[in-house]
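User: Hi! I have a protein structure encoded as tokens and I'd like to know what sequence might fold into it. I'm fairly new to this, so please keep things simple.
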């Protein structure tokens, strides 16, 4: 028997309509690439989005067509989020930090019909344009005065194309399963692969983010969206903000510590969503300005994801800002939220260190995401906080495969997506990410977590950033090599650092060598580029006498065994 409820499709256009109707005057603050700040409202954003939608018709873009953006977080980009998807076309947000050849590849692979870009990317677009086979129009997201002088065919100015359109439009209704946006994974190996989101998945994912147990986004929130709109839809926060009419603050390309802090303070940000590298830049700025008391911001929630939250970062977020540090885990393929690290009521009375230990786990599954860990043969492993396994996830906002079938079938026999991450899950359902399967260090048949070692190293006051990779070893297969970047003005003493680590990790986990470097390579999404490090240090000679798993070292830490 069917229920008798109205079968209304879950469409992205409903979010902007809600925001404009019920939160018309709530502000959207946007710092433009050119430096000035523009203030608008949800009501104006809806008008703007409808102008984009009408511009799509003028460009001949119809339902299902892909439209690329090379753009920072701005109100214009936000108008495209709603205007392009709202008419059933697919917004393809391109990560400008990819290599130019990869950008060319994905624009062609996506078959983008139009490419919208910020002035910052004009030289890049000029260079790539001859190779972009399907792009019919190139639109610079600026006013007439800001138009760059570049040699690109069919070059249009935002104000001439979008600014002149009518703000009248009835959003079309269509199947909620229709594609809404497209985002390519950064592809540290092989070509990037496209993750194709749907209206339904996007709306459900946004709804999940409103819960107090997740991001707690509500009409009283002021959300600083530092996480890029070209990276997994900025964690879905642009949609969740519209769903509740939260105030949005968009930093454009200005992600240095001073700019981010200034925006936080001026706009009284309550929730900032950033990858760890941005928080690190912010703390470097605060270190240079001890006169600043960051409590003045009134930040309540500091969201960290994309890479592990270290203990030192958690403590600084809580101490300097008085905010709750909230870790999330996910990936482009999971829209991206899979788990969120909130405490449970039973943790409320625990001493601070014990609460911290819980928060350093990546978090518990949110409604809508089924989790499991499996061994090499696909056997399900127990949730005891000890067994390591490959993390598989399933749910209405998890990818079922890649655009155009790249990479073939992805799902296991139960319809779960293998994430490529290795994790433990404890009895409360907290996932602790051990490593990416390809980064875990396999030493004498046991596994060493590079993430845990990096966090332990970063807890040392002289260490700014740390990377741990496995290097080949004749006896143990691999041993850990620690690469460290000193904090500004600090000198790292190798022996002292190793002695410090010996107090926190098992003896046989201790890195065999420590190399001090000026900087570490990162991927286009700001993660450590370990493939490059492994290539560079493949032949590195290890000086230490290795304490391997059978060397009489103290017993292994809990959860350090490989899958059975
Ligand atoms: P990429 O395109 O580089 O894969 P993603 O954002 O999709 O970019 O990366 C997802 C990966 O980032 C996850 O599979 C995981 O390895 C890592 N990651 C995400 N969040 C966390 C976290 N909180 N702690 C540790 N690693 C994380």
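Assistant: Happy to help. Inverse folding works backwards from shape to sequence: for each of the 564 positions I chose a residue that suits the local structure. Here it is:
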């Amino acid at each position: 028997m069917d229920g008798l409820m109205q079968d209304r499709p879950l469409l992205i256009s409903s979010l902007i309509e809600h925001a404009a109707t019920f939160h018309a005057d709530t502000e959207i603050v946007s710092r433009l690439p050119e430096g000035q700040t523009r203030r608008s409202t949800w009501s104006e954003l809806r008008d703007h989005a409808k102008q984009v939608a009408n511009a799509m018709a003028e460009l001949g873009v119809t339902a299902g067509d892909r439209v690329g953006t090379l753009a920072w977080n701005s109100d214009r980009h936000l108008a495209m989020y709603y205007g392009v998807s709202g008419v059933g076309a697919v917004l393809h947000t391109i990560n400008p930090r990819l290599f130019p050849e990869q950008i060319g590849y994905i624009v062609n692979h996506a078959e983008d019909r139009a490419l919208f870009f910020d002035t910052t990317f004009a030289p890049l677009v000029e260079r790539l344009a001859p190779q972009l086979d399907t792009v019919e129009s190139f639109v610079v997201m600026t006013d007439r005065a800001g138009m760059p002088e570049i040699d690109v065919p069919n070059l249009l100015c935002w104000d001439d194309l979008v600014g002149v359109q009518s703000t009248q439009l009835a959003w079309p209704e269509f199947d909620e399963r229709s594609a809404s946006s497209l985002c390519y994974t950064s592809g540290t190996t092989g070509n990037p692969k496209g993750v194709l989101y749907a209206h339904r998945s996007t709306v459900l994912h946004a709804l999940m983010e409103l819960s107090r147990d997740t991001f707690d986004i509500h009409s009283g929130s002021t959300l600083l969206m530092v996480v890029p709109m070209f990276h997994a839809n900025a964690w879905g926060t642009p949609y969740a903000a519209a769903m509740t009419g939260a105030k949005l603050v968009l930093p454009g390309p200005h992600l240095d510590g001073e700019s981010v802090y200034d925006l936080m303070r001026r706009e009284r940000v309550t929730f900032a969503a950033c990858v760890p590298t941005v928080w690190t830049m912010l703390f470097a700025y605060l270190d240079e300005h001890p006169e600043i008391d960051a409590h003045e911001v009134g930040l309540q929630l500091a969201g960290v994801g994309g890479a592990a939250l270290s203990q030192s970062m958690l403590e600084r977020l809580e101490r300097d800002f008085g905010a709750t540090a909230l870790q999330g885990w996910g990936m482009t393929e999971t829209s991206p939220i899979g788990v969120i690290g909130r405490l449970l009521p039973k943790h409320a009375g625990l001493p601070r260190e014990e609460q911290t230990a819980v928060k350093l786990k990546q978090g518990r599954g949110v409604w809508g995401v089924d989790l499991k860990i499996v061994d090499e043969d696909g056997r399900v492993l127990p949730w005891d906080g000890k067994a390591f396994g490959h993390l598989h996830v399933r749910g209405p906002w998890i990818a079922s495969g890649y655009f155009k079938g790249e990479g073939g079938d992805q799902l296991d026999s139960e319809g779960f997506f293998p994430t490529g991450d290795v994790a433990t899950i404890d009895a409360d359902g907290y996932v602790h990410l051990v490593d990416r399967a390809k980064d875990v260090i396999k030493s004498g048949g046991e596994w060493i977590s590079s993430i845990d070692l990096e966090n332990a190293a970063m807890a040392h006051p002289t260490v700014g950033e740390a990377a741990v990779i496995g290097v080949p070893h004749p006896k143990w297969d691999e041993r850990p090599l620690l690469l460290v970047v000193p904090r500004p003005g600090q000198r790292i003493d190798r022996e002292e650092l190793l002695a410090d680590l010996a107090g926190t990790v098992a003896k046989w986990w201790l890195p065999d060598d420590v190399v001090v470097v000026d900087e570490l390579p990162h991927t286009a999404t700001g993660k450590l580029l370990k493939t490059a490090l492994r290539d560079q240090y493949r032949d590195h000679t290890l000086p230490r006498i290795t304490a391997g798993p059978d060397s009489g070292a103290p017993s292994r830490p809990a959860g350090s065994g490989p899958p059975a």
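A useful reference point when you look it over: Residues 446-537 form a domain with the GMP Synthetase; Chain A, domain 3 fold (CATH 3.30.300.30). Feel free to ask if any position seems puzzling.
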